[in-house]
Amino acid sequence: MPLYEHVFISRQDLSNTQAESLIEHFGTVLADNGGKLVDHEYWGVKTMAYKINKNRKGHYAFLRVDAPAAAVQEMERLMRLHDDVMRVLTIKVDEHAEGPSVQMQKRDERERGPRGDRGDRGDRGDRR
């Protein structure tokens, strides 16, 4: 079956448990249509670049999905009809990345280079 990565944003006035229950709900939608939810991450409440439906913040959730196209289309259709979901993005991928997503990695791990340092700082010259 094809592999997908899916991100959706839900309204900011939901509680954390309500936002996480949306992940469970849409996971069951996938299962009912012959797919499966491989992994999911709740990224928390984040500030958006611009307002969506008068909301400045939103609950972000990330899903790794192994499902046929029809199951993903049905999940997206139900998300677009759901009042609490503001935005939906689904991308087809060749394979799922191992470990946590970039959003869940520690900030210093992302900024470090392959040697674990801060990278080349260039010539600093004479500092007096």
TrEMBL record:
GO process annotations (BP): translation
Tagged with keyword Transport: no
Region Disordered, annotated ranges: 96-128
GO function term, MF aspect, one: small ribosomal subunit rRNA binding
Biased composition (Basic and acidic residues): 105-128
Sequence similarity: Belongs to the bacterial ribosomal protein bS6 family.
Annotated protein name in UniProt: Small ribosomal subunit protein bS6
Origin species: Litorivita pollutaquae
Species classification: Bacteria, Pseudomonadati, Pseudomonadota, Alphaproteobacteria, Rhodobacterales
